[in-house]
């Protein structure tokens, strides 16, 4: 598995998100109020809404289209809704964010 | 012939004379010129509620019955802190200890009662107090600050309430009771035992058969010595062993006095010009200490004074309830054992429930309930009506819900009560009176019901019953727990949060969450946008807008679509555009390959399907043509729709287009609780459809008719007319003031029509149309807020603000074959 550097913590606002474009679709990288960083697919299991555009609260994000709440930790839909998104392995080294993708032959621009 | 107004003097200002005056002013307004002498230096307050004040559940202000304003309104002269020392029946005057002499035509003596002080050595030591009025409560509160030891002498109603209150305030409390069980006058021994266990469970020590011999101490209280020689240390001793009617003044005046001041059943004393009500009066050989019969005396005395009806005092049993939170106790009538009596008993030891109904000839004559008292009113009703209970004898003790196969639905039980069933024992209000008044007066709130019927206005224990009656009468439109929390992060409702933000001067979202005890670390997608709006609206110059708490549309100033693209609507003031503007839009559509262009209902042009990354460039091109954001995405001022008005239309009466543009240019950029759409029509033909908008103007020959609170979305509702003004300037000022009032008061996401219905159209009219200084204040606050709000968000972002919103963090691609 190759770890790809994609940016730094400071590139993402607290309680906010940025997206990373990949050939397999968009990935959302989220920063919580207490500076934890998570990466999940940027694609709501409900109707495919862009989760990076939602409001981040605790370790969850609320989808901007129909208010599904998705856990950033597990990728599972919260409450009565059922569904999940893929979580992407991520680590932070000295403020630099690295993600691991399935395919090895990748590079970040 | 009687004089135009007669002089009525009242000695004492407790609950009984207070209630008497309420009846009197209703039945014979203006007949008497009223003067009250109150030995206490204050207004009339609810003495029943002293225990909750002591326990810290209420404050003095909460228990005031008649504030100073009431005396002024009713033309009553109140001498506070004046004790009457002499009545001269010959001259028909009274004289106070401060030397004020007042003459009377009719006199009412309502001196109440004095606490009984047991005549033991040390009774006058500092630290020995009684439990009678607010001064006593204040003295206890002061003593409780020591968190030291207290002894309460007397295990009756008052003594136990005092003990519970002092314990609540942190004192170490012992109750001494001379009899073998607590409250022996109201409870049988079994219930007395359960009560003792419940009191002890709160950490209060109880000693029964405890005979006080002396109060010991050197210069101040140090302890209580019992007959057996035991000394219980204490720094505070509360004497609550009983009361006796305060008859000294009446006796000196030569009135007939027995245990109390003797009156006939119309509350007249042996001197027909002098009446007596309250705990000092003895009627039919009885003196009373509970509020219900005292209020009955007040009713009778008022009728006597007003000469309105021939009302007579009739004795009835009054239930006893203990006002100690968490201990439910109810007793009524006669429950002594006897040969001619039978009893039905239910005990549930694990639940701490004891119920006993005493019967004579199949009729209830007494009831004791402990632990579960909901059926008290029902038993009372059966007793009062002397209902033959033989039919339901087997299930009687289980209560009303078990009769006639009815379900255990508490609402059904209340619905099944007869119209003359008493609901409020303190004020003698029956079910029919409550439901009838709710219907005839259109009451919708508990406070209204209390004001109109007095039900649950005294001790408040019947509040749940009254609320059930409101649910029965009003249906779903009455919600007893009307405060809907903002979201699951808090128990507070929107109104409460808005009030506290201002009262506590909270100026950041973390401060709100900290001070108002939010249950989550940083809120949720429901409360954060609401809080952000409230802070923007309340502190326009100080609050730093938190974009992470805004919905995506307001964060990127465009409307998200189902596929994640955005729509862009530039502002066209009043719906007016030009060839240059249209050309610029056409160029943008071509350049960015925007798939759909559509005209909106608010007379604007909408470009749909713009990619997020393209937004700043789109705005840049639009900005060069002079466009600013149309705020089509905002909880804010959206559009002002207009017709062509007097410029072109042969029917137009005013320049509706010009006024629409003026309003829009003045108000754009302001954030509001929900979207605001406006329209201006140039004549009553109303081509701009102003009468279904949040705010609308219909121009007429003589000026401008201002409309508000319309809706044409989820709900359809024609507007209400706010009023008519003569000039454009005035129209603008009224509309701005209305919007500002809405901004300051409404709940987040609540449209104007819903807010206005809740607040009342008349109230809004009064504040923004009739009350000129107030209108001006709203206007000024809006203008101040606009200084910070009227910044074009598009040009800000073209200049680089929030760049991160519009660019991916990174793009990843397949790497070409590596080495």
Largest interface comes to: A-B, 41 and 31 residues
Any idea of the CATH class of chain A?
Mainly Beta
Chain-averaged pLDDT of chain B: 89
Rounded average pLDDT of chain A: 89
- The tally of beta strands of chain A, per DSSP, is 10
Tally of helical runs of chain A? 0
Brief account:
In chain A, 0% of the residues lie in helices and 42% in strands. Chain A has 109 residues and is mostly beta strands. The radius of gyration of chain A is 13 Å and the shape is globular.
Describe this structure in words.
The complex is a heterodimer of chains A (109) and B (819). With 109 residues, chain A is mainly β. Chain A has a single domain (3-100), classed as 3-layer Sandwich (Rieske Iron-sulfur Protein), CATH 2.102.10. Chain A is 0% helix and 42% strand. Chain A contains no helices and ten strands. In chain A, a hairpin with a 5-residue loop joins strand 3 (25-31) and strand 4. In chain A, 43% of the residues are buried. The mean pLDDT of chain A is 89. With 819 residues, chain B is α/β, with parallel strands linked by helices. Chain B contains 27 helices and 42 strands. Chain B has a five-stranded parallel beta sheet with strand order 5-2-1-9-21, with no helix packed on it. In chain B, strands 11-18-12-13-14 form a five-stranded parallel beta sheet. In chain B, a hairpin with a 4-residue loop joins strand 7 and strand 8 (101-103). In chain B, helix 15 packs across helix 17 (527-538), helix 23 packs across helix 25 and helix 23 (728-745) packs across helix 26. The chains are: A mainly beta (109), B alpha/beta (819). Chain A binds chain B through residues 4, 6-7, 11-16, 18-23, 26, 29, 33-34, 47-50, 53-58, 62, 64-65, 67, 69, 101, 103, 105-109, and chain B through 520-525, 528-529, 547-553, 555-556, 560, 562, 564, 804, 808-815, 817-818. Strand 2 (16-22) of chain A pairs parallel with strand 42 (810-814) of chain B, so a sheet runs across the interface.
């Amino acid at each position: 598995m190759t770890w790809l550097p994609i940016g730094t913590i400071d590139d993402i606002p607290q309680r906010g998100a940025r997206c990373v474009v990949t050939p397999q679709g968009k990935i959302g990288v989220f920063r919580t109020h207490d500076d934890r960083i998570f990466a999940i697919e940027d694609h709501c299991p409900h109707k495919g809404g862009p989760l990076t555009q939602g409001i981040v609260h605790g370790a969850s994000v609320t989808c901007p289209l129909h208010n599904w709440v998705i856990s950033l930790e597990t990728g599972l839909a919260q409450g009565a809704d059922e569904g999940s998104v893929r979580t992407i392995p991520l680590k932070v080294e000295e403020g630099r964010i690295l993600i691991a993708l399935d395919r090895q032959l990748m590079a970040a621009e | 012939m009687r004089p135009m107004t007669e002089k009525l003097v009242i000695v004492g200002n407790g609950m009984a004379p207070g209630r008497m005056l309420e009846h009197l002013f209703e039945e014979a307004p203006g007949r008497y010129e009223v003067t009250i002498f109150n030995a206490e230096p204050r207004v009339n307050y609810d003495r029943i509620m002293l225990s909750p004040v002591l326990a810290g559940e209420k404050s003095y202000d909460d228990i005031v019955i008649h504030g100073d304003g009431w005396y002024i309104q009713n033309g009553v002269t109140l001498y506070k802190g004046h004790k009457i020392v002499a009545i001269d029946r010959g001259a028909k005057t009274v004289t106070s200890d401060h030397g004020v002499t007042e003459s009377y035509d009719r006199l009412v003596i309502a001196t109440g009662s004095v606490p009984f002080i047991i005549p033991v050595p040390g009774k006058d030591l500092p630290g020995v107090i009684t439990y009678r009025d607010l001064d006593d409560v204040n003295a206890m509160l002061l003593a409780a600050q020591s968190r030291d030891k207290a002894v309460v002498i007397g295990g009756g109603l008052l003594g136990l309430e005092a003990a519970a209150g002092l314990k609540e305030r942190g004192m170490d409390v012992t109750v001494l009771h001379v009899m073998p069980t607590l409250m022996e006058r109201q409870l049988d021994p079994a219930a007395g035992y359960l009560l003792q266990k419940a009191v002890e469970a709160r950490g209060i020590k109880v000693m029964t058969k405890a005979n006080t011999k002396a109060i010991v101490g050197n210069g101040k209280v140090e302890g209580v010595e019992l007959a057996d020689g035991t000394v219980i240390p204490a720094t505070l001793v509360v004497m609550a062993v009983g009361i006796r009617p305060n008859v000294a003044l009446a006796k000196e005046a030569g009135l007939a006095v027995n245990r109390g001041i003797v009156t006939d059943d119309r509350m007249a004393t042996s001197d027909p010009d002098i009446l007596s009500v309250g705990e000092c009066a003895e009627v039919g050989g009885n003196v009373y200490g509970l509020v219900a019969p005292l209020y009955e005396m007040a009713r009778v005395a008022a009728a006597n004074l007003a000469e309105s009806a021939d009302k007579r005092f009739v004795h009835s049993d009054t239930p006893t309830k203990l006002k100690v939170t968490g201990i439910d106790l109810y007793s009524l009538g006669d429950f002594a054992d006897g040969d001619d009596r039978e009893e039905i008993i239910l005990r549930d030891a694990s639940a701490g429930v004891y119920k006993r109904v005493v019967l004579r000839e199949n009729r209830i004559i007494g009831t004791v309930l402990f632990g579960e008292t909901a059926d008290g009113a029902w038993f009372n009703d059966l007793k009062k009506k002397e209902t033959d209970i033989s039919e339901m004898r087997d299930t009687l003790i289980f209560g009303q819900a078990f009769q006639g196969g009815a379900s255990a639905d508490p609402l059904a039980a209340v619905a099944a009560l007869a119209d003359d069933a008493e609901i409020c024992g303190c004020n003698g209000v029956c079910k029919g009176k409550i439901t009838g008044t709710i219907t005839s007066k259109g009451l919708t709130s508990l406070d209204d019901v209390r004001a109109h019927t007095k039900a649950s206005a005294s001790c408040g224990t019947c509040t749940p019953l009254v609320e059930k009656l409101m649910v029965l009468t009003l249906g779903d439109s009455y919600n007893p727990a009307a405060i809907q929390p903002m979201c699951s992060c808090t128990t507070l409702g929107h109104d409460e949060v808005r009030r506290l933000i201002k009262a506590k001067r909270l100026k950041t979202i973390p401060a709100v969450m900290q001070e108002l005890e939010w249950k989550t670390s940083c809120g949720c997608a429901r409360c954060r946008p609401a809080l952000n709006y409230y802070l923007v609206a309340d502190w326009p110059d100080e609050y730093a807008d938190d974009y992470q708490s805004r919905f995506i549309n307001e964060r990127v100033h465009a409307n998200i679509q189902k596929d994640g693209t955005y729509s862009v609507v530039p502002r066209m003031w009043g719906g007016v555009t030009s060839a240059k503007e249209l050309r610029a839009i056409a160029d943008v559509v071509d350049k960015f390959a925007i798939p759909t262009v559509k005209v909106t209902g608010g007379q604007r042009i909408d470009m749909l399907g713009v990619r997020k990354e393209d937004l700043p460039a789109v705005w840049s091109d639009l900005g060069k043509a002079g466009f600013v954001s149309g705020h089509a995405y905002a909880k804010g001022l959206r559009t002002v729709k207009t017709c062509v008005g007097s410029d072109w239309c042969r029917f137009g009466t005013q320049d509706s287009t010009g006024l629409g543009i003026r309003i829009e240019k003045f108000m754009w950029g302001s954030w509001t609780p929900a979207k605001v759409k406006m329209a201006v029509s140039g004549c009553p033909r109303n081509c701009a459809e102003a009468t279904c908008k949040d705010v609308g103007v219909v121009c007429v020959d003589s000026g401008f008719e201002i409309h508000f609170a319309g809706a044409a979305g989820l709900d359809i509702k024609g507007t209400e007319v706010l009023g008519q003004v003569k000039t454009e300037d005035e129209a603008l000022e009224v509309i701005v003031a209305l919007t500002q009032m809405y901004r300051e008061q409404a709940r987040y996401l609540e449209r104007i029509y819903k807010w206005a219905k809740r607040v009342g159209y008349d109230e809004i009219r009064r504040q923004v149309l009739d009350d000129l200084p107030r209108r001006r204040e709203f206007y000024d606050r809006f203008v101040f807020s606009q200084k910070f709000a009227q910044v074009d968000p598009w040009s800000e972002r073209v200049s680089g603000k929030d760049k991160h919103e519009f660019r991916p963090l990174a793009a990843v691609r397949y790497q070409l074959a590596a080495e």
